[in-house]
Input
Amino acid sequence: MNEIRRLLHYVGPYRRDAVLGIIFVALETSLELLIPLLMANIIDEGVASGDTRYIFEQGAIMLALALLSLALGLGYARFASRLATGIGAQLRQAEYERIQDFAFGNLDRYQTSSLVTRMTTDITVIQNAVSSGFRPMVRGPVLLVMGFIYAYVMNAELAVVFFCTMPVLAIFLGLITWRVAPLYRDLQTSMDHLNRVVQEDVTAVRAVKAYVREDYERDVFHGVNDALARISTKTFSTAVLNLPAFNIVMYTTTVLVLAVGGHMVMTGAMGVGILTGFMSYVLQIMNSLMMISNVFLLLTRALTSVRRVGEVLDEHPLIASPDTATALTEVPDGSVEFDHVSFKYSADAEEDVLEDVSLSIPSGATVGVLGSTGSGKSSLVQLIARLYDATAGTVRVGGHDVRSYDLAELREAVGVVLQNNVLFTGTVRENLQWGAPDATDEELLRACEMACADEFLDRIGGLDGDLGQGGAGVSGGQKQRLCIARTLLKRPRILIFDDSTSAVDMATEAKIRANLASIPDATVIIIGQRITSVMDADEIFVLDDGRIHAHGTHDELLATDSIYQEIYASQMEHAQEAAAAGALATAATEGTATDAVLGEGGEQRG
Amino acid sequence: MARTTAQARPQNLGHTIRRLLSYMGHARLSLLAVAVLVSIAALANLCGTYMVRPVVNALSEGRGDDLPKLIAFTVVVYVIGVFASFGYTQTMVRAAQKVVFDIRRDLFAHIQKLPLSFFDRTRTGDVMSYFTNDVDTVAEALNNSFANVIQAFIQMVGTLIVLFVLNWQLTLITVACNLVIALYVRFSGGRSKMFFSRQQNALGALDGYIEEMVAGQKVVKVFNHEAANVREFTDRNEELRQAGASAQAYAFTMVPTTVCIGYVNYTIVAVVGALLAVNGMADVGALASYLVFVRQATQPINQFTQLGNFLLNAMAGAERLFAAMEMEPEVDEGTVKLVQTGRDSWAWKLPEGMGVGAYGALVRVADGAQQAVDGAGDADGGLAAEESGAVAQTTALGVDGTVLATGMLPLRGDVRFHDVDFGYVPGRLVLKKLNLFAKPGQKIAFVGSTGAGKTTITNLINRFYDVDAGEITYDGINVKSISKADLRRSLGIVLQDTHLFTGTIAENIRFGKLDATDEEVRAAAEAACADSFIRRLPQGYDTIVTSDGANLSQGQRQLLAIARVAVADPPVLILDEATSSIDTRTEKLIERGMDRIMEGRTTFMIAHRLSTVRNCDAIIVLEHGQIVERGTHEQLLAQRGEYWQLYQGLKELD
Output
């Protein structure tokens, strides 16, 4: 019932269409019921008295009614279609706006594909249910009530038959619907399982073929296929019981009406025409009940979709901007401070991702963050832009708790280049303007220069070059450089690079780093895999298992910290050799490359 | 492979129906029973409605005594009808599920057998859509339409007959009106197609936008781009709403229009019938009964037109399914089998009477030649076979006179490429005249930029794809002669992307060797350095992971993939950027485990970091599908070529 209430809520501005639609269908349905009445008149009075004029009169009325019903029907077509598509659009809009309010923590709870399905397929299902259910939903009850009334007016005694048989049918159909509704839910689950198996198999087809696991996968599929067939059989065999149930009651009613009515005709209590007309109502009333039960079945399936959409709408955004009245709107400087910060992604997670982290970064400093996969590097920096909230402790930016800032202002001041970054369909310019909507071409080009994206810009068609769907037209390294340029355009006070140059060659990376160093006043935080990415930083933090294992300059860490030494050793053995090989060729190499090589060679600095 | 499911029409109806019928043949008896029972139910219904006439006539003629007899007869007919309808609905559900189950089973089995090129050009969503949209429409059609079509047909024909019997003049009017309805439905259907394709375009545009933006939602947040996105979304959403509203409004006009024509029909018939009755050309009972029938007659006709559209849609779905099921599966002409001869030794078993000759070709052994060569010894024997690296216990002379290796060839891991050409798309070669050899036990590394052809080479060894020209031999045998399953069993691959299946961690590792014991699984995890993180998961090895591995990091997933290959323990290894997402420190830790797995095995490695390849026996530098350098680490550095440049970070590896 919650689902139905939700659906009604989103009727919103289409309420007028809904009301008019209902009225039109109700009127049309009532007209339809008048027609057998007129027909009975023709037979009982027209034919009996041989009055041709009367017959034509009644015929003309019938024709007029038919045209009226057409007009009503066309009106209804307009209102119902506006209503159905309107509800769909409203729900979709509400869902999309809600997702915009989602914090990272909310997004983590859903798979992207699941969110997309909830905004596309599910909405279509709901919209179709509304559009195809609307007419029978109104017609059913109207036919039922009017049918009863007309039948009663025609012959009250004969109508008693209905009062006996109708409740029986209602009970039958009610029972069936009640039994089937939960089965549909199981059916949906079973279908999801099957789809999941297919999806996993198709995406992992290389693994399946490489391990010659086709037979194994076929067995897995057999399991879910069998389960689906079973639950489908169970669901549908219950659902189709409504046909024989309907038949039993309809036939019983027909026989009773014939028997009782026939008896009444014989005793002269009723005309033959009335009996015929009455028979039409029998059919109509029964059909209406069938209609109502079908609508329920249709709705049961759609309600599953409403529920899935509802889950998104009810998702409480984990992070909200503080009151505009009290929120700070200006980030005074680029200092960052962690005060005994602990963090985990969800409340029921067992282990903290960050544990009691305290650190302080002065404004304008350049710091590096190093650590193995899963040590909490990304989590650490994402707290700064308040993409997640700390579970315990306080994160301060510019001397104030991040939670006291207006969210948009804070994120304007903290530029994050994410690890799994994306570009969007469109031109280079459109993508870069995400950073600064009003940036001039000079500014855009300047940012590209800083991010070393100018080198390939001409090859991809300049600022107007089309990046293709999802930025598919550029290589990994190029994409990363464009993402950096996009963030630089924001001119943030704090710049965070989350392993965002992994696909860029080392020489270019060194150049980008040098360019970043030239930005005045900006605090720069670099997460890297390579020692070379962070070794020039004012301070380096080494994370291990969610804790700060050590911090200091490159030289200090190299002298004292075991993990730093290990990372260094794992990379430098290669770099030293490269340096040695490079030294042989210094003369032949251009300046920047030599710098890069020297930068890698530990002994020059260490 | 964009598709418009909404208005698709089958191209080759006859063929599709034949295929569908053959599946329906699996439930032949049930469907036959359904057909019979439906006919009974429909006839009972028809007969019951017809009974109004004798009853009314009896009444109006004052033969009241006949009433109980007539009523009793009606009851009997109806009871039969109820049982029949119960019987056919239940039987139909089961028969339909059986047919759909079989279709799904065969479809899945067939898709599994399709070559990788199919999966390259088909999006996952499209394959999924076979199982969701297409199978569903066929299932729905079977569930609802099969019986309905029979019933509607019988009712339509039966009603028409009854109508003609009751009053043929009036029936001509009815037929004319129904023709008008049919024509209108046809015309209207054609016009609505236009509206719906507009809606479909708007829907596609919006869906695409949603997909891209939801996937990039985190970036949206980082850039405070929410409001701008909502504006853009609102525009597209409104566009769809308008297109949808006009399409639906048009579709909705169909029902009232047909209903109206029905009324007109009814009115004309009532008036004309009444006039006939007044003039004594028809009896009242017949007219009353006739009018009830006329109202019923429009029902099956309406139903028929609706079912027609529905069925055509289902046929279009079925056609896509059968087209998929008729796609050429992977060819496997290989006859050489892999047999395990010891704990760590395997051998290739050649088919009886065949031997391996030059370039690994299988050649029939000449009659009586076996002994002759055995006697001659190895002095000049095995020339042709040795060219390709085959080392055999016994040799024989082939029908073409060359010396062949026969019987069991020990698996050694000798892989050679002879002038191999290959392209994913005809006319665009990725590998050109590639020659390559890996001696047993060697570690070979491939280095080169993205698109240079590194992964392609490994894809050819295990026959994910087949060469366009040239030969690849494996222990002297052309890979095409080796049974595909056995070939792949002998090669352990860690792929670039790790794919996990929903299930426990242990199950995912066991994917490498289905009958692995818990100890073996654990040992493999330890070798891959995965044991320590697995133990820290909430349920250890029994922790459920999902296919997208949301609860695992990329690096942890790669460790699981390595554990998977470790438990499989194959004689030859292919590592495609197997540690690309693992940080250098952990990589260092795994190195020992990896070394143990690679010990004594021919290994092909695609490197993402040059630091991982320096200990290889040979490093092959590829550029644009050709080998530009080959040698050991030291040799290549000394050459100061491509590798040297990469090594110094002067060029991007990715």
Chain A touches chain B through 169 residues (CB under 8 Å). The two ends of chain A are 71 Å apart (CA to CA). Residues 52-101 of chain A form the longest helix (50 residues). The longest strand of chain A covers residues 336-343.
